[in-house]
């Protein structure tokens, strides 16, 4: 594989491969964050996570059209508006779903799995009925496509940088909320001991609803960002869901740090293996590594120590 | 066709009494004949199969407007395969056993076709299958209106070798039977016939959304031609990332056999402009048939709809069946199957097609170049019709 290339070429490939790995890491982290919050704090596995992402993507699609038609002047920056809209719409739907569906099923975790899976099918068909079965193309302002040439052979992709920056910001906000805000304190209390938290006057229902809404809202932002790199179609959410679960489960359900570490591990091994073998083989090898590590650490990479 | 169009339908129906043209109990009355449409309108495949359903309905409407088949109006029963292969088999059985459909237009993926094939053979039905596919199949009960692999691949590779002086190829594909079989044929042709070099071959899981590593490898190995058979949502990710990585397809030659106008709708024309696609039909074809077909399609299904290769192939199904039934003077499946070879359709939007002994179509291969508005400019077409060869010797 490495024969015949000059040192300069190898150096630039190393740099670009490293960058590819970092992009993959950001993508994984961004898609897993919403799910991790919900799964970690509430023990609910949201099978409709991918569909909440696609809802965000469709909102971006709508925004791009509306902005182009009515206020073409701000088209250059419409993406930021789109992300806010995606967050609000997905988050609002998340709140509604929690209130209508999830809260009745807290005592039955397996049933939430089934219920959210059903929800994902309903949402997919709804997208299909509203936006049509075909893929929609989300247009991006030209400054978001293309790449910045660093040297002759090294180029940095702008949409990759954008996803990385976005992931950094969102993760920062979530970490701040979780460890510095009153809501975060309450969430952590509920995770440690739900009954005791209720006893000291924490409205656990409200915490649950907000958590679910926030998780879904972040999924919406992720979906919006992924219109830059992926497709927007009714069932595109299914493309992300497996990788998302992998990251969350591997990271350990209740730890933000675990999610970060797990996204890093999986993305780096995936991207490195992909370079030296091929796409399909890389996936197989990555899964084998994850399975192996999970056999050694069934709880995931990072475990929150809780007295049961 | 012109002779039957002149006769009033009633007279034609009298000329062909039901008892004579339907000896096996199909759903044929003195005024009507029932056919089935079997595609996914829900689930992941709905994205691809929608165009086929639309084309088949248009063809049926046009045939009815011209007086139907053997003086009988076509009535269709539509079933949803729901992107699930066992469901396809079950619905196929329903269409054949309960509804007694005289023919079925349907299926899209090879997996769905393989699922219904035993049903069609067991209950002796007739399937018109529209998608270009990997070949290695032939059945009395199926007419393949799309291209098999050699029809799609060989002429395109010859062209790229001649026009682009290509020496090295990088093969990519989604990881399932069609891209793998097609790339196998492409590799054999490149290495054994053209005596050129394949410098990489790689597959990605269906639905893969990250292509940065392989794009780096492409940058490193600098192939003359990227040969890509990536399907579905992965396509969008692949072309967007290719563009973002600074690979300009107006300078780097890329040839694909999996991106039709339908797919470009999702990818965005600006992300794929300059790429070459090897198909038998493009919406932009300039011939009289197509000049009538495109407006008719848009009138029925909306100004914004685009027409890809498979959609056109699906449109051929009802027409070929009608022409065959009229040639055979019967709706009986055995007679349709026997009469099929040699049936020609001069009104095909792609120009002209004829059914081969092996139930595939003779048709031309064309190379199109993607424009930024999502359409293709046809840059090359074979002078002759390409012979379908589902079991190509030396390519397996």
Secondary structure category of chain A = mainly alpha
Query: How much helicity do the residues of chain B have?
Result: 40-55%
Number of strands of chain B: 15
Instruction: Please report the two chains with the greatest interface, counting residues with C-beta closer than 8 angstroms to the partner's C-beta.
Output: A-B, 52 and 46 residues
**Counting H and I runs of at least 4 residues, what is the number of helices of chain A?**
11
Sequence of secondary-structure elements of chain B? HHHEHEHEHEEHEHEHEHEHHEHHHEEEEE
The number of distinct helices of chain B, counting runs of at least 4 residues, comes to: 15
Which strands sit side by side, in order, in the main sheet of chain B? 7-6-8-9-10-14-15
Query: How would the global form of chain A be characterised?
Result: globular
Give, in spatial order, the strands making up the sheet with the most strands of chain A.
1-2
Query: Which percent range describes the beta-strand content of chain B?
Result: 15-25%
* Residues in helices of chain A, as a percent range: over 70%
In short:
Chain A is 72% helix and 2% strand. Chain A is built from 11 helices and 2 strands; from the N terminus they run ααααββααααααα. Chain A is globular.
């Amino acid at each position: 594989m490495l024969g015949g290339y000059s040192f300069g070429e190898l150096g630039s490939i190393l740099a670009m491969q490293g960058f590819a790995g970092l992009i993959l890491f950001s993508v994984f982290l961004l898609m897993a964050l919403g799910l991790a919050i919900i799964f970690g704090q509430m023990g609910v596995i949201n099978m409709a996570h991918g569909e909440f992402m696609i809802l965000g993507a469709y909102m971006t699609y709508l925004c791009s059209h509306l902005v182009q038609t009515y206020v073409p002047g701000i088209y250059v920056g419409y993406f930021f508006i789109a992300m806010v809209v995606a967050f609000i719409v997905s988050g609002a739907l998340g709140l509604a779903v929690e209130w209508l569906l999830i809260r009745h099923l807290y005592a039955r975790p397996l049933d939430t799995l089934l219920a959210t899976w059903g929800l994902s099918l309903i949402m997919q068909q709804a997208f299909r009925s509203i936006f049509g079965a075909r893929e929609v193309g989300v247009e991006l302002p030209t400054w978001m496509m293309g790449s910045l040439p660093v040297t002759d052979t090294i180029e940095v992709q702008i949409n990759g940088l954008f996803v990385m920056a976005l992931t950094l910001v969102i993760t920062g906000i979530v970490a701040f909320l979780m460890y510095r805000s009153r809501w975060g304190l309450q969430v952590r209390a509920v995770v440690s001991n739900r009954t005791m938290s209720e006893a000291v006057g924490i409205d656990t229902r409200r915490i649950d609803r907000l958590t679910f809404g926030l998780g879904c809202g972040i999924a919406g932002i992720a979906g919006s960002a992924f219109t830059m790199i992926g497709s927007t179609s009714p069932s595109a959410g299914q493309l992300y869901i497996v990788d998302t679960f992998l990251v969350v489960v591997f990271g350990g359900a209740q730890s933000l740090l675990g999610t970060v570490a797990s996204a890093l591990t999986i993305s780096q091994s995936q991207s490195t293996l992909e370079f030296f073998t091929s796409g399909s083989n890389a996936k197989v090898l990555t899964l084998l590594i994850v399975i192996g590590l999970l056999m050694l650490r069934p709880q995931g990479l990072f475990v929150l120590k809780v007295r049961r | 066709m012109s002779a039957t169009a002149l006769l009033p339908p009633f007279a034609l129906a009298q000329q062909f009494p039901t008892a004579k043209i339907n000896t096996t109990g199909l759903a044929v009355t003195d005024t009507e004949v029932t056919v089935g449409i079997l595609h996914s309108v829900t689930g992941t495949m709905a994205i691809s199969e929608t165009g086929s359903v639309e084309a088949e309905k248009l063809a049926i409407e046009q045939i009815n407007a011209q007086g139907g088949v053997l003086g009988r109006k076509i009535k269709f029963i539509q079933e949803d395969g729901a992107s699930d292969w066992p469901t396809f088999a079950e619905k196929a059985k329903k269409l054949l056993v309960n509804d007694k459909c005289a023919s079925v237009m349907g299926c899209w993926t090879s997996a769905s076709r393989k699922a219904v094939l035993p049903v069609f053979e067991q209950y002796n039905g007739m399937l018109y299958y529209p998608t270009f596919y990997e070949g290695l199949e032939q059945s009395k009960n199926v007419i393949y209106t799309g291209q098999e692999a050699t029809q799609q691949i060989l002429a395109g590779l010859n062209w790229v070798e001649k026009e682009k002086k290509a020496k090295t190829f990088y093969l990519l594909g989604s990881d399932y039977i069609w891209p793998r079989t097609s790339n196998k044929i492409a590799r054999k042709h490149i290495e054994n016939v053209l005596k050129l070099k394949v410098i990489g071959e790689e597959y990605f899981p269906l639905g893969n959304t990250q292509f940065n590593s392989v794009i780096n490898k492409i940058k490193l190995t600098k192939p003359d031609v990227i040969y890509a058979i990536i399907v579905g949502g992965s396509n969008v990710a692949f072309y967007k990332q290719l563009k973002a990585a600074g690979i300009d397809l107006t300078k780097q030659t890329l040839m694909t056999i999996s991106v039709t106008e339908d797919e470009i709708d999702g990818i965005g024309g600006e992300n794929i402009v300059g790429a070459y696609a090897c198909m038998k039909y493009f919406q932009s074809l300039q011939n009289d048939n197509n000049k009538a077909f495109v407006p008719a399609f848009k009138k029925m299904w909306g100004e914004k709809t685009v027409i890809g290769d498979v959609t056109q192939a699906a449109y051929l199904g009802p027409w070929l069946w009608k022409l065959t039934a009229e040639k055979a003077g019967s709706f009986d499946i055995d007679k349709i199957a026997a009469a099929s070879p040699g049936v020609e359709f001069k009104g095909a939007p792609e120009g002209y097609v004829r059914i081969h002994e092996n139930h595939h179509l003779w048709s031309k291969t064309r190379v199109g170049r993607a424009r930024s508005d999502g359409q293709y400019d046809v840059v090359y077409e074979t002078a002759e019709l390409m012979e379908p060869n589902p079991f190509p010797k030396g390519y397996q």
